[in-house]
What we know:
This is AmmeMemoRadiSam system protein B. Belongs to the MEMO1 family. By secondary structure, the chain is α/β, with parallel strands linked by helices. The protein has helices spanning 2-14, 40-49, 72-82, 123-133, 139-142, 146-149, 152-158, 175-186, 207-222, 226-229, 240-253, 266-270, and strands at 62-65, 89-95, 105-107, 112-114, 117-119, 136-137, 163-169, 193-198, 203-205, 258-265, 277-285.
Amino acid sequence: xxxxxxxxxxxxxxxxxxxxxxxxxxxxxxxxxxxxxxxxxxxxxxxxxxxxxxxxxxxxxxxxxxxxxxxxxxxxxxxxxxxxxxxxxxxxxxxxxxxxxxxxxxxxxxxxxxxxxxxxxxxxxxxxxxxxxxxxxxxxxxxxxxxxxxxxxxxxxxxxxxxxxxxxxxxxxxxxxxxxxxxxxxxxxxxxxxxxxxxxxxxxxxxxxxxxxxxxxxxxxxxxxxxxxxxxxxxxxxxxxxxxxxxxxxxxxxxxxxxxxxxxxxxxxxxxxxxxxxxxxxxxxx
Length: 286
């Protein structure tokens, strides 16, 4: 009877009678990051758009995924494929958009609330990373950072048993810091511990101009040219440090052949011409 009562209460908190529909939970525990804004319809549109026959040919060590949730079909497709891999921990790095706080690189050791339950972190790996690299523990500034928080529902939905290691990087996180952190991460990366960077590309440009900027950015990524990437602004991408961290980590781990699986733009998802767009790539490393 007790178990039945618990299950019933869980169902009331999380689900209603509509398929693929959720009722957002209240705070589950005091010591967790609160639920980030969750757009249910947009999320499940992405879930339902996934082509489940078009699977990756092999496991990955790293990749690039958007955090702009208009691109939910791309995000869902990425994590659906990743869910077929035996992943225990996802290291996810992205921009500290507002350059908040005094840490150039920040992480958190508390879980995230999602509509699908608590998303746990890999506490041991985080503790070691802090000790070895100087990444700082800053729970307060990471809670509502879009580059991490916008993806936590996808992590929990597609990889419910997987832990994460969140890292947010200020724009001032320089190449010497990239080299140090990538040296550490490259020793941890394998098919069970993958590095994902959460990055959106060209911002606030027309579709045609964005396409041209994306060609330049992609060329630099394929050439592993982090000096060139550090010379780019938001016309091209929102986090040169995050992309550079991925490139260097993959190089050092011996998985430095990027494969572009998707390239798109918010104008295409909205199906209308707009003057200010955002562009996206899905790129994997094997």
